[in-house]
Amino acid sequence: MVLHIRIIGRAGRITLARPQALNALTHDMALAIHRALDDWQGNDAVALVVIDAEGDRAFCAGGDIAAVYHAGLAGDHQLGRDFFRDEYRMNAAIADFPKPIVAFMQGFVMGGGVGVGGHASHRIVGDTTRIAMPESGIGLIPDVGGTWLLSRAPGRIGEYLALTGARMGPGDAIHAGFADLFIPEADWPALITALERDGDVGVLRGQPAPAATLDRRDLSAFGARTLPEIVAALEASGDTEALAPLRRNAPLSMAAGLAMVRAARADTRMQQSLSREFRFTARSTADSDFLEGVRAQIIDKDRQPVWRHDPTEDKLRAMLAPLGDDELLWEDSE
Questions:
Q1: Residue 135 annotated among the catalytic residues of the structure
Q2: Where does the pLDDT of residue 334 fall: very low under 50, low under 70, confident under 90, or very high at 90 and above?
């Protein structure tokens, strides 16, 4: 069992149960979460939903993309498209759910984990929480609604996090808009029991979080127009800490992520951001550095990717162009 779905008292309960795999999200898990939310939406016995995870290392360290990699390598690009489409529909279902959803996010919360916990109505972080959108390191872009969240972070934090994949502790996660409340993890079991018993989110009371650090960093370089201009500004300022990941991550992914975070600032609903993200990810196994990034970071683990795609204007335009009949649409726009 990789996912425990049940009703306890007044709460619909979803527990990610792959601690040995850092609770990485599979295609089947995404579909099961979406089905559970559909079932509980009209169930008056369910007052709220609680999402948590087994193990102390990770709430969810990302999507389980090994199958997408192997299929893409064999020339099957549909498996990846199906995975991303269904995952994004699940992300939107969490964001739009009409009842409270409380996510308890410990340890690593990355990529697909942000898609599960980051769109809940009540996002709880604790002592060990480390949140990041590190997709540019594997040749992808911040997806699962990540560009929506990043676009709403203060100042240039969104660009900084998208390009560097930097990890946020609990204080920074709250400051950047990826979480709502800091509650020590030792208090979580009693809170979950109370939520199950009473179905009332009034029991959730945040405590002072560790101090944020992002608000004290000079991120003005990330306001530059293009990726090369951002690199030049960081070189001029001597910010070697921020330069290191920009020299390591996939150039096409960073340039596309930069464009998408900025485009998402004009979006009025997360579905618009998800549809834009899908334009890149639907093409990722065939037309980007995604397969090479996964090979280097996850399959062979040599950490030596060879990026082959330059982020020219024509290439960016092609990766972000509408998908025609394959566009990710929503019920109220179809």
A1: yes
A2: very low
